[in-house]
Structures are given as C-alpha cells and as structure tokens.
Design a protein that fits this description.
This protein is 73% helix and 0% strand. It contains 20 helices and no strands. The radius of gyration is 23 Å and the shape is globular.
C-alpha cells in the first residue's frame, strides 16, 4: 500500500501517463518464455519432424517474435518501477547492467559454440559443418573474426537473437523514460522508425558480408510494443481485446496465415491459389519483420490476454510447470538450447535421421534444458535461504560504549 502511494505521488508529480502492472510474478510470461525457448531449440534442428509442433509452421510469426515481444514486456514490467521510484539514472544503469549480463552470456556461448562446431567437424571429418554454421571464417582468421564477434557484427548461425536483445536493451533507458510519460507517442515514433527502416533499407552491417539477420531498426517495434502493452497498453486496448469484431476478424486472419504458411510448405496446396497471393507471403520476410508477421503476433497477444487472464487456474497445472520453470531461467535455458541444437543436428546427420532419432534428440534436449532450469531455480533458492539464515544468526551489534572502547 505504501509502495502504491509512493508510486502514485511520483507519477502525479512527473505527470506520468502509464499504468504499471500489478506487483508480483506474472506466470503467463514465464509460460510463454518457456514455450519460446523450447520452440527455438526445436526450430534450430533442421529436418526434424518434432519441430512441426512449433508456432512457425502454423502462421506468419514464430518463437523469435514471441521472445522479443515478451522481452520488451518484461523489461518494462521490471525496470519501470525502478525508474519511477529511484530515478532515470538508477533505472537506466539497471537496464545497462542487464544488457551486460546478456552480453557476457552471449560471449561465453559464442566461444563454446565455435569450439563445439570445430570439435564435431573434426570428430566426424565433416568440414562442411563449419560452413553450415558460418564459423569457417573464424577457423581461417580467428583474431579478426573474434573481434567482430565481440562487437556483435559476426554471428554464427542460430546466434542472432541475443545480439538483437543486447542492442535493444542498451538503447532502452531513454525509450522507457519517454514511454513512462508519453506511451502512445513513443509507440508511434517506434512505428515510424520501423516504416523508415523498411523503406530506406536501414540495417546494421554484419561480418564478413551482409547485414543483421534480425534488423534491429525493424524489430525494435516488437520490443517496444511489448513494453507499451505492459505499461497500460493492454488495459487501454481492453475494449478491442474483448470485442466480438476482433474475435471474428482475428480468427479469420489466423486461419488465413495458416493457409498461406501451409502453401509455402506444400506446393500441392499452393497450386490451388493465385501465384501472386502465395508469393506475397512466401518467403516470409523475417529480417525486416514483415507487417503481416507483426499483425499475426499482435493478434496472438490480444487472444492470449483475452483467454488467459493473469489469474488463470491452468497456470498451476502440473503439465505446465516445466515450461514455467524454463521461462523463469530463460537466459540460461536459451543459451543451453542453442548449444544443444548443434549436437542434435549432428546426431541426425552423422548417426541416424530416422524418425525415432528425431524424437530422441528432441526429447533429450528439452529434458536437459528443463533439468538446467530446475537446478538454476534450486540453486537460487538455496542461496537466498542461506543468506536469510546468515542474517538471522549474525551476532547483535555491540553497544556504542563498547565500540568506543
């Protein structure tokens, strides 16, 4: 109650226009992040029948869109309160500290990932692996490639999400400051940047050639949209979210996205439709976050908000606990999943590509990711319990006269 009054006074003083979400953990975010981590792992294994259960096969957006949207929501959910209660400098430095933690995780994964691919290429005498995962240039010129890896311009295959996340977190402090005061105007500015980036082909250069796979000037819109959604956007959009019109039109669009995506997978279905229509949506423009892809994710977010409220009883079902646990330890699980996907792919190429093997490597990878999540959660709880026990058993401070003596 005291915290709510303080926040209310600060908001009134600075004329903030946002509505902070309720205090406490939102298990929907953990559930969706866990699902995104599992799906990204499965999607990173080519020629794997199990990845047909993931989102990318049934619509325009995929787990990466969901991951970035939730990351923006979570960053705003967590750091907006810090910025309101302790000021821009403290809130901004907390965001930069988090970006640094993600960067350290990325560098560690980068080194382990290249070492893993180099070892597997030698172990199975398959130098094509180095080309397949875009690390051959590192083997030829390690010093220069490592430098570009450290500044995020060189990214092996499947290691594009974290650099995007780092870049967005680094520039987020002033964006969050603006969003707390003018959320709708900030969202409009983000949308205009998205349109300009698509129109003028703005992107960051990659090493040794090309540009970023996830164009940060376009994908920032999804991140900021998640932040806007957390800071009152979902409440402001509630009449639309609960309307019958959105239910009908949104459902129709999801069905349309399903048909267009399936047409891109199965030529037999594509032949039944006009070529211009199929070609408009295939291949799916992921790099520049195609508008139809963005709309697909927004509709999914609206539907999830409508049919999965914060107090949904299903969040306590046993079947969802592994997913929620993986979402709570999201960074570690994500990095481990990227690492495991390479081993799973090599196992399918070098050992067996039978359907039983596809199920085996997929199930083993998810099991290991879940085990890591449970260990991480247990370890953090043990550290907290130890810290509390140490505080309770600490000797009482000496009286002032004994200190002076």
């Amino acid at each position: 109650m005291i915290l709510a009054n303080v926040a209310s006074r600060v908001r009134s003083k600075e004329r903030l226009e946002t509505i902070l979400p309720p205090m406490g953990r939102d298990y929907r975010l953990d559930l969706l992040r866990g699902f995104a981590n599992w799906a990204i792992f499965l999607d990173h294994i080519p020629n794997n029948a199990v990845n047909w259960i993931t989102q990318r096969n049934y619509g325009f957006s995929d787990a990466a869109d969901l991951f970035v949207f939730i990351s923006g929501y979570t960053a705003s959910f967590v750091y907006a309160r810090v910025m309101i209660e302790r000021g821009f400098v403290i809130g901004g430095t907390r965001l930069i500290k988090r970006a640094w933690q993600i960067y350290v995780a990325h560098v560690l994964l980068f080194v382990m990932y290249i070492a893993e691919i180099g070892y597997l290429a030698q172990r199975y005498n398959d130098p094509n692996l180095e080309n397949e995962f875009n690390v051959a240039n590192f083997m030829r010129n390690p010093a220069e490639t490592l430098y570009h890896g450290l500044i995020l311009s060189f990214k092996p295959v499947n290691m594009d999400v974290l650099p995007l996340y780092i870049a967005l977190m680094l520039v987020f402090p002033p964006v969050l400051w603006a969003m707390l005061r003018r959320p709708n105007l900030t969202l409009v500015a983000s949308f205009l940047l998205y349109l300009a980036a698509r129109h003028f082909s703005w992107n960051l250069s990659a090493y040794p050639i090309g540009s970023w796979y996830f164009n940060p000037f376009c994908w920032q819109l999804l991140f900021i949209l998640g932040g806007w959604f957390a800071l009152g956007g979902s409440i402001e959009s509630r009449p639309l979210i609960r309307s019958r019109g959105l239910l009908v039109l949104g459902s129709a669009y999801l069905v349309f996205a399903l048909v267009m995506t399936m047409a891109g997978r199965f030529p037999e279905l594509a032949y039944l439709m006009p070529a211009w229509l199929v070609d408009t949506f295939n291949p799916n423009d992921k790099t520049n976050l195609a508008p139809y892809r963005l709309l697909h994710l927004i509709i999914l977010a609206f539907f999830i908000t409508r049919f999965m409220p914060r107090d949904w009883s299903g969040l306590h079902w046993m079947i969802f606990r592994p997913l929620i646990k993986c979402g709570q330890q999201s960074l570690e699980v994500f990095c481990f999943g990227v690492f495991l996907a390479v081993s799973a792919h090599v196992a399918l190429v070098e050992v067996s590509n039978d359907i039983w093997m596809q199920f085996l490597v997929s199930a083993a990878g998810i099991a290991l990711m879940t085990l890591l999540a449970y260990y991480g959660s247990w370890s953090k709880d043990a550290d907290k319990s130890h810290a509390k026990a140490s505080e309770s058993t600490a000797p009482a401070p000496l009286p002032a006269d004994l200190h002076s003596a």
